[in-house]
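Now for a specimen:

…
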Amino acid sequence: MDTLSPEEVQFFQENGYIKLEQMYSPEEVEEMGTELDYIMEKFASWDAAWKGPWRKDYMDDKEDEQATLVAIHELQHYSAAWSRAVTKRELGAAVGDLLRTDAVELHHVTLHAKPPDKGAPFPMHQDLPFFPHADNRYVDCLVHLNDADENSGCIKFLQGSHKNGKLKHITGEGTAPHLPTDQYRLEDAISVPAKAGDVVLFTLWTIHGSAVNHSTDWRRLVRLGFRDPRNMQEGGQAMGRPGLLVKGVRPKIDDVEVDVYGNWSK
């Protein structure tokens, strides 16, 4: 897969998300999954479920008590298989097509793994509050290590919601950023089931969420954040840290200095 079709790019621009099937081969998925299991066992946090009053609208009391999420950042620092995965040429080319850019930078890598029968949900939100950028030239990519469907808590989107731009989220101590649950409802969102090896890509402004994993299998997703290097970050995760270029070369940006060690500052 070298380039996406005009129809695929148009679908993404209109809806704010797209699924690309079998970006990773079964052999790649097996290796990535094996090394991911090791990372989860040895290094990950098993208490990463999002908190907040929104949970009462997503879970009953028993589900709330048991809800679990396994998370860790920057898998490429722990695994050669994941170093290869995040720099996959075909994926970088696809993101470049979606962003309509000649350069694509890896911004971050984050695992969100939902255990069987108790995997925690995510409230409806944009990813904007976690790593705000100046504009929407940013794509999140969900790499699926397991089949994900309605029962296991697959990703859901409010179609076309990216066109509303940056939205104010509910934030504060004791709660993860989220949108008002009475205005942005999970039941109004479009489910995007996917197979192991598929990737689902969406914009920084696309509203999304997911339900509890009620299946007997894991729902292991790894989020890769990609941006046009010209889209300047305004705060949050990985602020000020340069990322790997997965397509093209880094453009020279006025008022941004990059030293010989790769550190940049404005």
